[in-house]
């Protein structure tokens, strides 16, 4: 078993947190550069240094390509909408499109023949009081990945990796998916790479014949890999909850002094965000302007005054004065 690098400094962890919260490629690159500048240089961090350097090089290359292609149409670019962008990917005929269509009611192409989806197609999934964007993508194989697909995957907030549990080649699909995306540094099954995208591995068509037996076999052969069985014929509420958790976000409701809170349009923040983070999201000058913050929800009592670095929780109500 690999050992995590030792003696990482508070400055490094702060830079890593900046990377996780960054929403633009420029901010992510700046955070990566700060991570490289603050990481202790010793043998225990060599693997992590190499990973950061490789990711930084990839982002620089992507940035250069975007500059060259400025003004041109990129059919694999999907503008982010809602509380987060979750991209589904997998081998041909795994059931990705059917899942996206069921969860979002988007008019995606679903057929029994492979390569039905030729370009990314997005739909919005309702989860309680927010919308989450799901993106269906063209399938890949062990020897072919569509040009542009890697860029679509990299810009996502999270991934859903889909295999077909009902087919005899489900093990091959599993290995192909994990191998390809690990090589692209999009996922890290070991959980040791702080840059890797969060993901879930879904076993689709779980209601079909042979699916239960195939799932048991996969769990025996690859016990370290968690496979979540799903079916569009069954209730998908649990999957929706898992997708929300995967995004690692919280919903915060604003409240004006003397008025009821706005419970219909929550602010979306990364888990671990503070009152100051919320203020900055509302307006970049607000962190310097507000004097007090009152919180309903996670506070010890309703309307408690909290410090600026108070860590907010999902569904907190906040009043800034």
What's the count of strands?
Answer: 11
Question: What is the average per-residue confidence, as pLDDT, rounded to a whole number?
Answer: 88
The residue fraction in helices comes out at 25-40%
Counted by DSSP, the helix tally is: 10
How much of the sequence is in beta strands?
15-25%
Radius of gyration: 21 Å
> Which stretches of 5+ consecutive residues score pLDDT under 50?
1-5
Structure description:
By secondary structure, the protein is of the alpha/beta class. The protein has three domains: about 10-70, no CATH class; about 85-245, 3-Layer(aba) Sandwich (Rossmann fold); about 250-320, Beta-grasp domain (Ubiquitin-like (UB roll), Roll), CATH 3.10.20.30. It is built from ten helices and eleven strands. The chain has helices at about 10-20, 25-40, 45-70, 95-105, 150-155, 170-185, 210-220, 235-245, 275-280, 285-290, and strands at about 85-90, 120-125, 130-135, 160-165, 200-205, 230, 250-255, 265-270, 295, 305, 315-320. Strands 2-3-1-4-5-6 form a six-stranded mixed β-sheet, sandwiched between helices. Strands 8-7-11-9-10 form a five-stranded mixed β-sheet. Strand 9 and strand 10 (about 305) form a beta hairpin. The longest helix has 23 residues, at about 45-70. The radius of gyration is 21 Å and the shape is globular. Mean pLDDT is about 90; it is low at about 1-5.
Summary of the model, kept short:
The chain has helices at residues 10-21, 25-38, 46-68, 96-104, 149-154, 170-183, 211-221, 237-247, 275-282, 286-289, and strands at residues 85-90, 121-127, 130-136, 158-164, 199-204, 228-229, 249-254, 267-270, 293-296, 304-306, 316-320. It is an alpha/beta fold and 321 residues long.
